[in-house]
Amino acid sequence: MKLTIVEYPDKRLREKSCEVKEFDDSLHELLDAMNPLMISTNGIGLAAIQVGHPIRALILNIPDEEGEQPPENLLEIINPVMTHKSGETTYQEGCLSVPQFYEDIKRYENIIINYQDRYGNTKTLEADGLLAIAIQHEMDHLEGILFIDKLSYARRKKFEKEYKKMQKERKNSK
């Protein structure tokens, strides 16, 4: 399965993702194709909607101390629901769908989610630090929300201007 990352301002990124009901080979094939794409583009998380599949599925692989993302650390999270959130933290986020743009975003510091794995088994995950931030970022994608939506009005206007300029430069350099 050949996947490409959907980039802002593509309207598909604003689509609300549907619950996964079938935990079948096509889901497994999608998840298996998402991981190498995420790794090759230097991502730590990727939602299915970011590759054009509007389903409630995401993957995460937080780098270890050496900066590696071993396959055994991969998390596949289907139909996540946040059951607890506390604290507040700010982290400089980026997004594979909004390339080359980073901004400080406020998130919950600690979260607990219930989700299903690729086989439909129910799981619970407690997260803090970068994992909690990445889960919240990817769960926002499932709702059609991008991290840039969390910027102040003035910062968002500045982003739009900078991003248009950057896209123009990228096109001209090709």
From TrEMBL:
Source domain of life = Bacteria
The record's active-site residues are 138
Q: What class of enzyme is it?
A: hydrolase
Pfam families documented for this protein: Pep_deformylase
Q: Which UniProt keywords apply?
A: Hydrolase, Iron, Metal-binding, Protein biosynthesis
- Return the EC number: 3.5.1.88
How the cofactor is bound: the record states: Binds 1 Fe(2+) ion.
GO BP, sorted A to Z? translation
The cofactors it requires, by name, are: Fe(2+)
Q: What reaction is this protein's catalytic activity?
A: N-terminal N-formyl-L-methionyl-[peptide] + H2O = N-terminal L-methionyl-[peptide] + formate
Q: Which residues bind Fe cation?
A: 95, 137, 141
Q: Which GO MF terms does the UniProt record name?
A: metal ion binding; peptide deformylase activity
Functional note? Removes the formyl group from the N-terminal Met of newly synthesized proteins. Requires at least a dipeptide for an efficient rate of reaction. N-terminal L-methionine is a prerequisite for activity but the enzyme has broad specificity at other positions.
Check the record and name the NCBIfam families matching this protein: pept_deformyl, PRK00150.1-3
Family assignment? Answer: Belongs to the polypeptide deformylase family.
Protein known as: Peptide deformylase
Q: Which organism is it from?
A: Sulfurimonas sediminis
